[in-house]
Amino acid sequence: MSKTVQMSESDFLEKIRRRAVASDRVPIPIGDDLAGVRVGHELIMLGSDQVADGVHFDFREHSPRQIARKAVLRNFSDCAAMACLPHAMTATLLLPRGVGSGLASALTEAMDEVGRAFDCPLVGGDTGSWDGGLVIGVSVVGRCEGVGPVLRGGARAGDRIYVSGPLGGSILGRHMEPVPRIALARALAGRGLVHAMIDLSDGLSRDLPRICTASGVGATIDAACVPIHEDVDRLLAMKLGKGEGHVSRTGAEVRLGHALDDGEDYELLIVGREIEDGEMKADLGLIEVGWVEAESGVRLMRGGRVEEMESRGWEHGL
Amino acid sequence: MSKTVQMSESDFLEKIRRRAVASDRVPIPIGDDLAGVRVGHELIMLGSDQVADGVHFDFREHSPRQIARKAVLRNFSDCAAMACLPHAMTATLLLPRGVGSGLASALTEAMDEVGRAFDCPLVGGDTGSWDGGLVIGVSVVGRCEGVGPVLRGGARAGDRIYVSGPLGGSILGRHMEPVPRIALARALAGRGLVHAMIDLSDGLSRDLPRICTASGVGATIDAACVPIHEDVDRLLAMKLGKGEGHVSRTGAEVRLGHALDDGEDYELLIVGREIEDGEMKADLGLIEVGWVEAESGVRLMRGGRVEEMESRGWEHGL
Fold first, then answer.
1. For the stretch A210-229, what's the b/e string if a residue is b when 16 or more beta carbons lie within 10 angstroms of its beta carbon?
2. Do A12 and B105 touch (CB under 8 A)?
3. Reported confidence tier of residue A101, pLDDT bands at 50, 70, 90
4. What ipTM does this complex have?
5. What pTM does this model have?
6. Superfamily of domain B160-308
7. Which of A7, A79, A130 would you mutate first to test chain B, the one with the most B CBs within 10 A?
8. What topology does CATH give the domain B32-143?
C-alpha cells in the first residue's frame, strides 16, 4: 500500500474523465465502475481490471485458484457497483516463463468455475508467457435487464450513506476473495432506493470523495457509525505482537483509520434516500454511516467535532 | 521467438477449445479470433489480447505510441479475422513503478487516437504500477451489422486459399504496426466470398492448420505462390552481414521459411470459393496460395514434390 508523491492513478484517471463525453454510442463514459455502451438496441456495461504479482496477490503465498478468483471477482464487484449482472468475460494470462501449462489450466479452471457460479461464462482471451511475474487481466460485459445501471453521479443533498458490511483489515485475507454484492445492488436499484453507488476497493476515505465529486455534493461520515471489521483487531493484535503498535494515536483512532483507509473491502458504498427500519434495512444488512450535503468536501464527525476527512485509502501511484 | 518442449499455448488452447460448447448465450465459443455472445437481441463479438515488454515489444526501443498502437491494432486485426467492426474497447495498463504519469498519458492518448481512427472508442479500464515490466491488455467489442461473423470452421474441400499480402520478416518493424484488414474482410464477407478466415499472427504454417482443424479438412500450399515480403531479403542480408546465414539450406528455402513461419504479419488468411480474375481479385489484392482438400493435414507443394508442412510458426511456450 505504497504512497507516492508522484501523480497518482486517481489524478490520472480524473484527467481522463474530464475528457470523457457521453455520446449515443457511449452513454456512460469512463468515470464509473463500468462504462455503458450501446450496441444496436442493447446497452452493455464494459470494464476491465487486472491483478499482478506483488501488488494484488503474492505468487509464493496464494494458490492459482485464489489468484484467478480475485481477478474475476474484482470485476464482478464492479458489476455490483453498477447494479448490473455479469454476462460474459474474457481474460488475458501472462505467465512466468517455464512454469508449464499446469498453472494456465489451474487459473483457467478457477476462472471458469467462478464464472459459472455467477452465470458469466469465460468466452475467450489470450495466454502468453514472459520473463516477468504473473499478471491476469479480466474484462467483463454486464447487462442491466431493466435494473440500473446505477452511476456515481446521482447523490443529492439529504441522501443517506450506507455500507453493506464491516470495513478494514482485508489484508489478512479477505482481499483475495471479494464477495460481489450483486443481489443486494439489484434489490436496492430495483426498488429505487439507491441514487449513487461504488464498490469499496480503495477505502471509504478515497471512494466516497469519488461519489461526491461525480455528484457535485459533499458528505459527512459519523465515525461512531462506521462498522469496523474484526480483522482490524486481529491485525492490530498482530502488529502489537511485533512491536509495531501506534502509540501516538488512540486505539479508537487507529481502528477507525483501518476501516476508512485500508481498502479492498469490496463492500458497496450506497447513497440513497433514507430507508426506514421497517423497510428491509436490517434485512439488507445496510449500515448507515453518514449523509450527503450540498457543501462540497468530505467530513468526519467524531466526538461532536467535525473535521475534513483525509483521503488515505489505497492509492496506486504511477 | 522461443520454441519450448513444454506444453505450448496452442496445445493448451486446444484443450480449452475441446471443452467449449456453443450455447444460446455464447453461439461462438472459444476457438475463433473472437467469441460471439448474445446480449438481448444483439450478437456482440468479444476478445482480449495483450502485449508485454520483451515479448511483443522492447520498452527501451519502442515508443509508448508504438506500443499502445500495437496493443490495440492486434485486437482490431482479430476483428478483421471475423469480418466484424470494432465497436468499443477497454484497456488495462500495468506500468513499471516510478515512471510517472507521462507514460500512462502517452499510452492512453495513443490508444484513444487509434481507437478514433477505427471508430472504436476507448471506454474504460484499469491502470496500475508494479515492480515488473510494462504490460497492456486490450479488450474489444465488435459488431457485425449484417456481415459475418466469419469463423475458422467453414472451409470445404475445393476451396481456394488466399492471403492479403506478402509475408515474413515482420520483426524488422512491421510487427509493431499491424494493419487490420477490416475493409477487405467486410467486402469479402459481404459478397459471400469467404468461408473461413484467420489473421496471420503466428505464421501461415501455424495458422492454416488451425483453420483445417476447425473445419475438419486439409490443405496444400503451393510454395511458388507464397508472396515473400521484401523484409525477408533485408533480414537475410542483415543476418549474412553478421555471419548468421543458413548455409545448409538454399536461399529459396530460407526465404520461404520466413514467409511461412515468422508470424506477426497480421495479413488475412482467407479460405473461400475460387474468385475469378475479373471478379475483383486483383482489386482486393488477394494472392492465391493453395487449396483445401478433404484429406486432413497441411502439405507444401514445392518443385513438383508434396511434403507435410511443419508448423514452425511463432509458438508461445508456457
1. bbbbbbebbbbbbbeebebb
2. yes
3. confident
4. 0.92
5. 0.92
6. PurM-like C-terminal domain (3.90.650.10)
7. A130
8. 60s Ribosomal Protein L30; Chain: A; (3.30.1330)
